[in-house]
Amino acid sequence: MNSLLITEENVTIEYYIQGSGDDTLICFHGHGRQVDDFLFLKHKDRKLILIVLPHHGNSQFPAERIETQPLSVTELSSMFTKILEKEAVVDFHFIGFSQGGRFVLSLLPFYKDRLKSVHVISPDGMDPMSFYNRTSRMRLARLLFQKWENSPETFIRMAKLVFKLGLVRPKVFSFIELFAANKEKFQRASRTWRGFRNITPDLNTIGKSLDSNNIYFRVIMGKYDQVIRTRQAESFLKRINQVDALIEIECGHDFFKKENLKLLSDILKL
Question: Which of 85, 120, 229, 270 has the most crowded CB, counting CB atoms within 10 A?
Answer without folding.
Answer: 120
